[in-house]
Amino acid sequence: MTEFLASLLAIDQQLFTLINGEGHNAFLDLLMPFWRNKYFWAPLYVFIFSFVTLNYKLKGLYFVGALLLTVTLADTVSSQVIKKSVERLRPCNDPELKASVNLLVPCGGGYSFTSSHATNHFAVASFLWLTLGMGFRWIRLPILFWAFTIAFGQVYVGVHYPLDVLVGALIGILLGNLVARLYRRVAVWQINYHPIA
User: Fold this and answer.
1) How far apart are the first and last CA of the chain?
2) What is the enclosing helix (H) or strand (E) of 123?
3) Structure confidence by residue, pLDDT tens digits, 66-119
4) Which DSSP helix (H) or strand (E) runs through 132?
C-alpha cells in the first residue's frame, strides 16, 4: 500500500468516525434507517413512472426504460464490477473497527467500495437533472439533495465509509449523464420537457 493511499484511508476512517460516531443525534438515528431504505422511496418511483406514462404515453415508456437502464447499469458497475474487484470490508465488518461502529441497520455481507446506494441514486438524480429537469427546473436541487442525503445516510448508519459514497456518487453522475445524453440523441424517444399546463 502506498503512503498516499494509506493516508487517504486514514482520513476516510477519521471522517467515518466523525459522521457515524460524534455526529449522531436522536432525530437522525430515527430517520436515517428509513431514509436510506429503497422501499421507503417506492411511492416516489411509482409517482415518476405514473407521471411520465400518463402524460407522455409511448414516449413516457421510453423514458421509463431509459431510467431503468440507468439504474441497472449503475448497480451492475458498482456491485458486480467494482466491489468484487476491490473487496473492501464494510466498516461494520472490519475487525479493527466494528466494535466502535454505531450500527443502525443490518451490516450485510457484501463489500463496501463503492456504495451502490450512492451510485444508483446519483445516477438517477443525474439522469433526471438532464431530462425532466430541462423543463421542470425546480426539481433539480431537490433531487440532488435527495441523492446526497441517501448517500450520507450510508455512512451515518455504519455500513459505508465516506470514500465509498463519494466515489459511488461520482460514478453515478457519470453513468447518469451517459445514459441521459444517449437517450436525448434519439428524437423519437423525446418527451416534451415543458411544464404541463
Assistant:
1) 58
2) helix 116-130
3) 999 999 999 999 999 999 999 899 999 988 888 889 999 999 888 999 999 999
4) none
Question: Does the pLDDT of residue 155 top 90, yes or no?
Answer: yes
**Which three cell numbers, joined as nine digits, stand for 83?**
466491489
Q: Which grid cell is 19?
A: 459522521
Q: Report helix, strand or coil for 146.
A: helix
Q: Give one DSSP letter per residue of 28-84, joined into a string.
A: HHHHHHHHT-GGGGHHHHHHHHHHHHHHHHHHHHHHHHHHHHHHHHHHIIIIIIIHH
Is residue 148 within 8 A of residue 97, CB to CB? The reply is no
Q: Are 173 and 128 in contact (CB under 8 A)?
A: no
Domain extents in the chain: 10-98+106-189
| Contacts for 52-59: CB closer than 8 Å, 24+ residues apart | 52/132, 52/191, 55/196, 56/191, 56/192, 59/189, 59/190, 59/191
**pLDDT for 165:** 97
The set of residues, in sequence order, having a beta carbon less than 8 Å from that of 117 and lying 6+ positions away, is 36, 38, 150, 151, 153, 154, 160, 165, 168
